[in-house]
Amino acid sequence: MMVLNILRESFSSLFCYMRSLNKALIGPLILALAAELLTLTLSMNEPFSLFFYYSAHWFAEFISLVSYTLLAIIVIQTVLQDNVNGFGFGLFWRKRETRFLLHQLGLIALLIPVSFLGFIPGIGSWLVMLMAGYLFSRFALVFPGIALNQGITFRVAWKLSQRYQLSVFTLAALLPGIGMVITDLLLIDLYSLPLKFILDFVLSVFFIIAMALLYRNIVLRAASQN
């Protein structure tokens, strides 16, 4: 029931805020596009060297993380604090954004050991996706907390999500994963890449909204009751 209510409210919030957030989303959108174009260029051209290839690839991933950091903070603050104004063109950086980015990198590092499950014959890749999705969802509540400048850590996020494991897994990992797989399968042609990029960006906004609402239902409501 919680998942359905949050999805319904997320759709309403998406249409409600997208028009007012047009200006603030320009910066994250440009950064995401730059990362996408760099990745596409690397995939279509023979690299001069492995060092150049991997350096450029990781640089593109870093730009993508920066874009997501700005996007998430803008959307979460707008949904939970009704802070529509004050973001300019979405290009800003303070200690909060650094903390958000470092937690993303820390979570990626925590998930690295899960990749060894991929060596299991037959089901390895499925186990990697399942375990990575589960662990990510259990820690994901840390990000709305950081966006709101609240003192939440991975340990606190894990504890808060204990009672809502199925809901956070569905909203933070399962449905976003399904959405990206569908866009990858339907829009694999080179000419459809612009549409795929826009759809992926809108999906990111939608599921950030869903995570913000999930944080409100779990964390902020519990805090008000206590």
From TrEMBL:
Which top-rank group of organisms is this from?
Answer: Bacteria
What is the protein name given in its UniProt record? Uncharacterized protein
Query: The organism's lineage?
Result: Bacteria, Pseudomonadati, Pseudomonadota, Gammaproteobacteria, Oceanospirillales
